[in-house]
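Dock F7E; give full complex structure.
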Amino acid sequence: MFVSTEQPVAATSGRARAALITGITGQDGSYLAELLLSRGYHVHGLVRRSSTFNTERIDAIYQDPHEHDPRLRLHYGDLSDATGLRRIITAVAPDEIYTLAAQSHVKVSFQQPEYTADVIATGTLRLLEAVRDYQESGRRVRLYQAGSSEMFGGSPPPQSEQTRFTPRSPYAVAKVAAHGFAVNYREAYGLFIANGILFNHESPRRGETFVTRKVTRAVGRIKLGLQDKLYLGTLDARRDWGFAGDYVEAMWLMLQAGQPDDYVIATGRSHSVRELVELAFAHAGLDWQEHVALDPRYLRPTEVEHLCGDASKARERLGWRPRIGFEELVRMMVDHDLRLAEQELTLRRAGYAPPRLLEPTHA
Ligand code: NAP
Ligand code: F7E
């Protein structure tokens, strides 16, 4: 059963619930922060230090603590820094922790395998160790761990909670390890940990080097004459693409359940990259064949051919189901990126916009 988004959640002590989100500046973190704020939570976000601002996705919900007593607060931290994580957990005293932070790009994980493993696998372990000690000091906390359909890798669809993990990238191997740590800490120390095994989910806030956003950004720019070609890798891979806003609801529902468990979250329908490209270009009135070219540098050493999830367990036990389908999602993203391209064109005409660096690393 879906719980109303308007209903504020009170903790047992009477104070509003506090949630800590690692990865709050990412796609999912930003949607989840909005959801939790709308439900009355105090939200704390872990932000890593960067030489430029990296908070664009949460700028709309940020409140200056000099002027307000905000319900959203940010803390500098990094999954590579165990001491800092412990300090933040103690200071924040969260009722719920959503661990979303990750080097989340599969192709980049082939280029940076050691870093990817450190942040995803060992980073999750650092957080679990901090939570274990926090709970031993008498506090109760529920933790969401961001697993991925990439863990299924080479196992044929439909993939469910029963499907074997056959990871095909350093990213996926690291996610399998994080999943394993989470299950072990649940069993060994009685921690409330839910593993979400989420299939691809996208939005206008998706990072621009993931294929959906790369395509919709290019469609907007090509339509307005700011770009002519779009270079891609395989067009044959199939993914089960849903909307990120729907998927963060599932994360929250997992932590409201009576028992901690693992859940596949998916739409149950898959499409090829080619179908994505056709639909996105057609929505802008463009012929994709005139603009799309293969660049083998975007191919992966080992590809995941076909992911399509069976989310029956989440539907039956959590009442979760996706609201936005593939076609609506692609239209939403193209429309957003057409508006972005219009802004870029206006700035260019006024002499303000420099040429765009599209992709430095062929991710
Ligand atoms: P995303 O947009 O790439 O966001 C990743 C977040 O992690 C960002 O806030 C990033 O900070 C932060 N981060 C990266 N390295 C960090 C570190 N060392 N310490 C602290 N924070 C760090 O990813 P997403 O799409 O929102 O995905 C959220 C989580 O779900 C990830 O764990 C991802 O692997 C997993 N997942 C995603 C999908 C999907 O389709 N989106 C599917 C399954 C699982 P910056 O903003 O500073 O870079
Ligand atoms: O690739 C193909 C690519 O990078 C999708 C992450 O959120 O979802 C995401 O991982 C497909 C692959 O996502 C290009 O080879 C073709 O078959 O958008 P993607 P992903 O690898 O599925 C999972 C569930 C996660 O957990 C991850 O964190 O598209 N593809 N040409 C391309 N992909 C990219 N990025 N760029 C191309 O030019």
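Observed: The radius of gyration is 20 Å.
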